[in-house]
Design brief:
The protein is an alpha/beta fold. The chain has one domain: Alpha-Beta Barrel (TIM Barrel), CATH 3.20.20. The protein contains nine helices and 16 strands. The strands form four sheets. It has an eight-stranded parallel sheet with strand order 3-16-15-10-9-8-7-4. A four-stranded antiparallel sheet has the order 5-6-14-11, with no helix packed on it. Strand 9, helix 5 and strand 10 form a beta-alpha-beta unit. Helix 4 runs parallel beside helix 5, helix 6 runs parallel beside helix 7 and helix 7 packs across helix 9. It is globular and about 55 Å long. The chain binds 3,4-dihydroxybenzoic acid.
């Protein structure tokens, strides 16, 4: 039987499996990161970090129902030094993506400067889409401000020379995706991860007539299977509009091998698993891999290059 290869190449970064964890879920502490390191996840992505450790928002701040999840975590993380030290100490044998999410553009520059000095980072995943910060309640997501994003990237590529990807919020208009792709195409971006959670969802507990999470009056980011159609649409459109050397990492609604297949068919080179990882734990990577390989076998495909981006449209 011919071997099925689910490896991927993110703009030169080689993954033995195209399935990895999404930033934010079970990737904050040493124990959690070590577990991902030893799993069949194709890479390790850290929780988005800040300069100083943060406790995050008050609980309850995460809730899951059958179709998805809502969260308002508020960036609980151990601070960039912890993640850089983890990397130096453990030297993972798979790609290590440091996710960063400064509370301000200035803090993002500081984080990127620090990461620039670390020899073992494969890439930064710059989070332009963190929706849950109480401190930033009067500022929008960076990824929704096209002018600021462009200016920010312009400045950071003056000094940062390593691989960098951006994690984007979902866009709902073709025009916005075209515009963001036009901006990203002007920079040496390595990959885009789309999509982050849908910001500003609200989930209600009718028994208590209240919200299920408490920070920010119950509003939070929506993830899980309910957001998959938005993820697929963003992947597809970015695949069409981005420079061909910018890889896409799909994120949003990966629960089965079929979901992995759909993301890649739309143009993703790899996928990230968030809500389902939280639900199922570390064995999710083995299960998804098995289900994905079984679909490829049935279709007579031997690598993701056989169908990546090749969605049929009539
Ligand atoms: C958090 C949520 C996000 O969707 C994100 O991209 C970064 C951080 C959070 O609330 O911790």
């Amino acid at each position: 039987m011919k071997k099925i290869d689910i490896s991927s190449n993110i703009n030169g970064i080689k993954l033995t499996s195209c399935i990895m964890n999404a930033s934010g879920v079970l990737c904050c502490t040493e124990k959690e990161l070590s577990e991902i390191m030893m799993s069949s996840s194709g890479a390790v992505v850290t929780k988005s970090c800040t300069m100083i450790p943060r406790e995050g928002n008050l609980e309850p701040r995460y809730f899951k129902w059958n179709m998805g999840s809502i969260n308002s975590m508020g960036l609980p993380n151990l601070g960039i030094d912890f993640y850089l030290n983890f990397l130096e100490k453990k030297k993972p044998k798979k790609p290590f993506f440091l996710s960063i999410s400064g509370l301000s553009i200035e803090e993002n520059y500081q984080l990127i400067r620090k990461a620039n000095l670390s020899p073992n980072i494969n890439a930064i995943e710059l989070n332009l889409s963190c929706p849950n910060l109480i401190e930033k309640k009067d500022q929008g997501l960076l990824g929704y401000d096209f002018y600021k994003t462009s200016d920010f990237l312009d400045n950071l590529f003056k000094f940062y020379k390593k691989p960098l990807g951006v994690k984007l919020p979902p866009y709902f208009e073709d025009f916005h995706i075209k515009k963001m792709a036009f901006i990203l195409n002007q920079f040496p971006i390595c990959f885009v991860t789309c999509i982050n959670s849908l910001p500003n969802g609200l989930f209600i507990d009718i028994n208590h007539e209240t919200t299920v999470i408490h920070p920010k009056k119950g509003f939070g980011g929506i993830g899980g299977s309910i957001i998959k159609p938005f993820a697929l649409a963003n992947i597809r459109k970015f695949y069409i509009y981005l420079r061909k050397d910018i890889s896409i990492i799909g994120c949003g609604g990966i629960c089965s091998g079929k979901d992995v297949f759909e993301h890649i068919l739309c143009g993703a080179s790899a996928v990230q698993v968030g809500t389902q990882f939280f639900q199922e734990g570390i064995q999710v990577f083995d299960r998804l891999k098995k289900e994905f390989i079984s679909i490829l076998r049935k279709k007579n495909y031997f690598s993701i290059e056989n169908f990546k981006g090749q969605l049929n449209v009539i």
